[in-house]
Design goal:
- There is one protein chain.
- By secondary structure, the protein is an alpha/beta fold.
- The chain has one domain (10-274): NAD(P)-binding Rossmann-like Domain (Rossmann fold).
- It has helices at 19-30, 42-54, 70-84, 107-135, 157-176, 196-199, 210-222, 226-239, 248-255, 261-276; strands at residues 10-14, 34-39, 58-64, 89-92, 98-99, 139-144, 182-188, 201-202, 243-245.
- Strands 3-2-1-4-6-7-9 form a seven-stranded parallel sheet, with helices on both faces. Strands 5-8 form a two-stranded parallel ribbon.
- Strand 2 (34-39), helix 2 (42-54) and strand 3 form a beta-alpha-beta unit.
Length: 282
Amino acid sequence: MRERSLSGKKTLITGAASGIGRATAVAAAERGARLVLTDVNSEGLDDTVTAIRAAGGAVDFAQALDISDYDAVTAFAKQVHQELGSLDAVMNVAGISTWGTVENLEHRHWKRLVDVNLMGPIHVIENFIPPMIEAKRGGALVNVSSAAGLMAFPWHAAYSASKFGLRGVSEVLRFDLERHDIKVHLVVPGAVDTPLVQSVDIVGVDRDDPRIEAWINRFRRHAKSPDEVAKTILKGVEKGTYMIHTQFDIRFGYWWVRKFAWPYEFAMRRANDLFTTFLPRG
């Protein structure tokens, strides 16, 4: 954004009932953001709103909904725009996870992950980014992908399908929205100790197996807290960072794929400039 600070900025955060979404909402409120919050969990969302307001934060609008439901997101956006006008920052944090090998995963697993983790953010982008463009104030779009959107982790095929997809959307919009002064930020968390750790659906295995429990405990020992991740996200937004890493090991692993980043970025910017010349002059 022209002014990187979120103070006074109308900021949408999805997945605000728990985990990274809630922590980001709390941290953004502490920085003076005017919040618009949503989550599928109405009770958890109410708790977040109550906690933020009790601490003196500003929640201008909150509503429970399923972001995979395009009509619900569209109706939500219409209400938000009627009451508040266009937003300044949009943060797609909501997400779910399912792991499993291809012979154990069912179609419903693939579909639900893509519906929530990929189409959900797309529904939000469709409804909230064009009004931001029209307002000509610039802004920020934050998409929370995953380390599984960068690298191939075991049993993550369906999850990675959604997270690689969100990374692809972000990569294109990074250049496409640059001419509107809307910064795109792609968050790629590694291990984060959220409620999702205990609820993640691992298809084809017994969650009570001591070996699985041992791996989950090992994961949690290595994991960052949601509060740590939220602070990293907001720091990245304030600095204008495109890819926001939450752990060094993920940054180092992805370094191998980014060795020739500068020529690629230069070429993509020039290509985007060329394609823009084909747009009608307003």
